[in-house]
Design brief:
Elements (H helix, E strand, L loop, with lengths): L1 H18 L17 H10 L2 H29 L6 H21 L2 H13 L4 H12 L1 H43 L10
């Protein structure tokens, strides 16, 4: 009888164990908390932020040259010949202006701020998913297309706007100059 009870208990245990679903392996929970420096820097590399900063710096340096040409035009308008003092002042303007821009727009200086910005926006799990997308064939195509769209938008929208704004500023400066009583250096007492 003992054997029969033991056999029955064993059969029931085996039957219930066979009907119990197999346990699935538990996946590790997604990383929580802000994204890591390394993942953010990888993101910044994939989207080529360094090149964007270099373009911005080049644009600002171009603006310094435009300002120089405007100063030369203003001197010509009032009949002031370009003398050694003017040349030195213009050289100082370009040198110091360019140095200031290169210092302030230095990527190595700005990258920690960018990392902090992204850290406040993305969790590590979100950044992992974003990086996986950007590394995928579709993500690579998306990046390429976005860069092309940005170039087209700059050419179609912003370049003409910059030109119109520049002309508008010249007109405003001309109106200001005409409205003010500027005295030619030769007429000063």
């Amino acid at each position: 009888m003992k054997y029969l009870a033991l056999l029955l208990a064993l059969a029931c245990t085996t039957a219930f164990a066979a009907k119990e679903p197999a346990k699935k392996p538990v996946a590790a929970p997604p990383p929580v908390g802000p994204a890591s420096n390394a993942s953010i820097q990888e993101y910044l590399t994939l989207v080529d932020v360094r090149a964007d900063w270099a373009k911005l710096l080049a644009q600002y340096e171009q603006d310094v040259l435009v300002a120089e040409r405007r100063i030369l035009a203003d001197l010509a308008d009032i009949g002031e010949p370009l003398n050694a003092r003017h040349k030195a002042a213009l050289a100082n303007f370009k040198t110091k202006g360019g140095a200031f821009l290169r210092k302030e727009l230095d990527y190595a200086k700005l990258e920690p701020q960018a990392v902090e910005f992204y850290r406040g926006v993305y969790t590590q799990d979100e950044m992992n998913n974003l990086l996986a997308f950007l590394k995928s064939p579709l993500g690579k195509k998306w990046l390429e297309q976005e860069r092309g769209i940005a170039k087209k938008a700059d050419a179609a929208i912003f370049d003409p706007l910059k030109q119109r704004f520049g002309l508008y500023l010249v007109a405003l400066v001309t109106d200001l100059r005409n409205a003010c009583d500027f005295v030619h250096p030769d007429q000063r007492q």
